[in-house]
Automatic annotation (TrEMBL):
<comment type="pathway">
    <text>Protein modification; protein glycosylation.</text>
</comment>
<dbReference type="InterPro" id="IPR009914">
    <property type="entry name" value="DPM2"/>
</dbReference>
<feature type="transmembrane region" description="Helical">
    <location>
        <begin position="64"/>
        <end position="86"/>
    </location>
</feature>
<dbReference type="GO" id="GO:0005789">
    <property type="term" value="C:endoplasmic reticulum membrane"/>
</dbReference>
<keyword id="KW-0812">Transmembrane</keyword>
<feature type="transmembrane region" description="Helical">
    <location>
        <begin position="106"/>
        <end position="126"/>
    </location>
</feature>
<keyword id="KW-0472">Membrane</keyword>
<keyword id="KW-0256">Endoplasmic reticulum</keyword>
<dbReference type="GO" id="GO:0180047">
    <property type="term" value="P:dolichol phosphate mannose biosynthetic process"/>
</dbReference>
<dbReference type="GO" id="GO:0033185">
    <property type="term" value="C:dolichol-phosphate-mannose synthase complex"/>
</dbReference>
<dbReference type="Pfam" id="PF07297">
    <property type="entry name" value="DPM2"/>
</dbReference>
<comment type="subunit">
    <text>Component of the dolichol-phosphate mannose (DPM) synthase complex.</text>
</comment>
<protein>
    <recommendedName>
        <fullName>Dolichol phosphate-mannose biosynthesis regulatory protein</fullName>
    </recommendedName>
</protein>
<comment type="function">
    <text>Regulatory subunit of the dolichol-phosphate mannose (DPM) synthase complex; essential for the ER localization.</text>
</comment>
<comment type="similarity">
    <text>Belongs to the DPM2 family.</text>
</comment>
<dbReference type="GO" id="GO:0030234">
    <property type="term" value="F:enzyme regulator activity"/>
</dbReference>
<dbReference type="GO" id="GO:0006506">
    <property type="term" value="P:GPI anchor biosynthetic process"/>
</dbReference>
Length: 141
């Protein structure tokens, strides 16, 4: 706001009775330039704040995902690879399901994931073929 007051005071002083230029032209030009610069600064500041906020949330989300992946990797590695080296009477066996699930669970997740990807690709191809058929009908009509 102080920049705006300074520009207005300069404009009124330069448009006094001793000034040779028309007072309204100079005043409006400076005022409009000031408003444009102020609004441009506010917009750029808002965009910068949005980018920073999105960057922070992206970093937090990435960190959470990384921690989750590290936990799953550590748990599964301990379960599938290290657990056989412990005695069957060890209390660490209480924290893990039976060993055959260390193979069954990833196989099931792989089948479900590949099925989901297959359905997605199939539906996308079907939609594209419908759009092409509609365009062909419109051209023919």
């Amino acid at each position: 706001m102080s920049d705006m007051m300074m520009i207005l005071s300069r404009a009124t002083h330069s448009c006094g009775p001793n000034s040779s230029s028309p007072p309204t032209n100079q005043l409006w030009t400076r005022l409009l330039y000031s408003l444009h610069a102020t609004s441009e600064f506010a917009f750029n500041f808002q965009v910068a704040l949005t980018n920073v906020a999105m960057g922070v949330t992206d970093k937090v989300l990435g960190g959470v995902m990384l921690l989750a992946a590290a936990f799953v990797f550590t748990y599964y590695t301990t379960w599938a690879i290290l657990l056989p080296f412990f005695d069957a009477s060890s209390p660490i066996h209480n924290y893990f399901p039976a060993r055959e699930w260390a193979v069954r669970l990833p196989a099931f997740l792989l089948v479900v994931g590949l099925t989901g990807i297959g359905f997605f690709v199939g539906f996308t191809i079907m939609k594209e073929n419908r759009k092409k058929a509609q365009k062909a009908k419109l051209r023919a009509a």
